[in-house]
Write a sequence for this structure.
């Protein structure tokens, strides 16, 4: 049986469904009074007993059945079942009413993946409707899927340009330049069609900044301001562009004009302070900061931001004063991290350590311990370091594996290799799935223990097959300690596909290609790696390839450059032996 559907037919179908639903509810209510074993929230998931065919614009028996189940499930707040049924029928029938219902349920449940699916179905069956395009574009931009949103952007701008442009503006900084250029091309067309839309000129300017076209961005902001002189966002964007271009006095003039209209504008005042610091007017910047703090006495985040801004521009005493005042009011121990940074820069290591060890909340707890250990350099500090880490792991159980890693790295730095491995062994016994601990242990083992290192690398890759660091490390160590060159090459090929611009991976694959006598390919990778990261080890590998290709003069020139920069480096010393044997 096939029920021909139009929008009005679907509306009538919903009336029928609601009547059936009401009967079911009444029936359920009556039965619940007679039976104590009924489960009112039992999952609704029956299966129809017929086979169905589908044509767009038609509803069949299975459609009716699924929609009934969906409505009943929704009544019982089983929204996942309801959404599943509506999405299924939206895709099969292409009925606008069903598609909209699926989209609304997905919006209500905040199910982004289902909402994207519903919007795509909607666009497919109603390609001229602007609502689904707006919905889809907004969703994709918010998720950072900029290239996927591009095909729908023009249609969405036609319907709701204000909302879409606001989304573009807020996410433009995350766009890769290539995608920003594609959006800019669309916005340029729109400004030609509606040249008096100030919001379009604003978005155009923001995208032009993203692709480093600052001259045109300034032109666009000026056009936007001419159309709407009071637009705060345009004022901020123009002033910020001038600041970043080094035109500090012009930026301050724009900010002054904005503050004349709105003297209490916090964002403009912050931009003024930034510009004063950048323009080498730190005393005026500090004065403005203090005035802003007085105006917003309880805005702790603002006070912290201004303290860190002063710290960035080396106004240590001013930053310290703000932080101490803020701490006296809030007793927020996370502020000790920044006070520790200031004491470090003032060359007061013990005071810095005292501050770091008081950090017991916030995002910088681990960093505070890392900096503490960095200040305790030397093997004589081992008992104190051990005591600090012992207490830290007890007080911060959630950070214990990372703290053990930091401790092991410190021990290795000061030649306590066996103690470092022992610490890692204990850590792994407690946290066997912690990948960084496994990686550190694999990297710290001596060459004669390579089989144990390989076991750790294999463990990591079993858990995370696309771990580029582990692929690179295992591939490179295989090239050093074994003759399993082809296996190493397979690992490093995968690593370079995952991290094509990483100089460490480029060096490793260049080295294994050298081992495989593929000198031309090796030279390409190693030359690129050395250009990005002129390290003595990378340089020594490059010299080895040059010698193998009989490019002895280039090898000698590179050796001279490296030996002058790194005269005591063991890689350079070994390379000298290679050169002496070849030249």
């Amino acid at each position: 049986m096939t029920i021909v559907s139009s929008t009005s037919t679907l509306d009538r179908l919903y009336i029928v469904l609601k009547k059936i639903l009401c009967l079911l509810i009444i029936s359920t209510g009556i039965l619940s009074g007679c039976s104590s074993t009924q489960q009112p929230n039992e999952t609704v998931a029956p299966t129809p007993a017929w086979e169905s065919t589908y044509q767009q614009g038609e509803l069949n028996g299975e459609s009716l059945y699924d929609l009934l189940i969906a409505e009943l499930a929704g009544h019982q707040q089983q929204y996942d079942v309801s959404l599943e049924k509506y999405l299924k029928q939206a895709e099969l029938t292409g009925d606008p009413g069903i598609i909209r219902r699926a989209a609304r349920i997905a919006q209500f449940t905040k199910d982004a993946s289902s909402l994207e699916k519903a919007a795509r179905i909607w666009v497919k069956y109603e390609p001229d409707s602007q609502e689904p395009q707006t919905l889809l574009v907004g969703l994709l931009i918010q998720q950072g899927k900029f290239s996927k949103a591009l095909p729908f952007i023009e249609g969405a701008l036609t319907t709701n340009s204000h909302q879409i442009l606001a989304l573009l503006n807020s996410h433009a900084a995350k766009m890769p330049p290539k995608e920003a250029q594609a959006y800019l091309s669309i916005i340029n067309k729109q400004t030609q069609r509606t040249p008096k839309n100030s919001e379009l000129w604003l978005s155009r300017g923001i995208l032009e900044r993203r692709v480093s076209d600052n001259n045109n961005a300034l032109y666009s902001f000026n056009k936007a301001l001419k159309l709407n002189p009071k637009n705060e966002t345009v004022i901020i964007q123009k002033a910020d562009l001038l600041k970043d271009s080094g035109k500090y006095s012009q930026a301050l003039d724009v900010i002054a004009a904005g503050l004349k209209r709105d003297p209490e504008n916090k964002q403009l005042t912050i931009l003024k302070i930034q510009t004063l610091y950048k323009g080498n007017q730190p005393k005026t910047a500090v004065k403005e900061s203090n005035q802003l703090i007085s105006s917003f006495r309880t805005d702790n985040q603002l006070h912290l931001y201004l303290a860190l801004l002063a710290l960035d521009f080396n106004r240590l005493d001013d930053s310290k004063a703000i932080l101490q005042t803020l701490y006296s009011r809030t007793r927020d121990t996370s502020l000790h991290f920044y006070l520790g940074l200031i004491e470090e820069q003032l060359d007061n290591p013990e005071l810095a350590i005292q501050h770091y060890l008081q950090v017991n909340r916030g995002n910088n707890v681990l960093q505070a311990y890392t900096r503490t250990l960095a200040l305790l350099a030397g093997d004589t500090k081992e008992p104190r370091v051990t005591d600090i880490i012992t207490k830290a792991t007890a007080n911060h159980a959630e950070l214990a594996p990372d703290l053990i890693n930091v401790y092991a790295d410190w021990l290795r730095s000061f030649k306590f290799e066996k103690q470092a491995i022992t610490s890692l062994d204990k850590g792994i016994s407690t946290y066997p799935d912690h990948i960084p601990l496994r990686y550190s242990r694999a990297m710290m083992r001596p060459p004669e223990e390579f089989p144990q290192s390989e076991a750790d690398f294999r463990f990591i890759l079993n858990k995370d097959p696309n771990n580029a660091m582990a692929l690179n490390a295992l591939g490179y160590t295989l090239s050093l300690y074994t003759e399993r060159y082809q296996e190493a090459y397979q690992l490093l090929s995968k690593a370079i596909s995952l991290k094509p611009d990483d100089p460490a991976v480029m060096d490793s694959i260049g080295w294994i290609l050298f081992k495989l006598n593929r000198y031309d390919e090796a030279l390409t990778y190693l030359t690129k790696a050395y250009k990005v990261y002129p390290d003595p080890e990378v340089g020594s590998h490059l010299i080895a390839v040059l010698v193998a290709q009989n490019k002895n003069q280039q090898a000698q020139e590179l050796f001279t450059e490296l030996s002058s920069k790194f005269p005591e480096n063991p890689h350079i010393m070994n390379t000298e032996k290679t050169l002496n044997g070849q030249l």
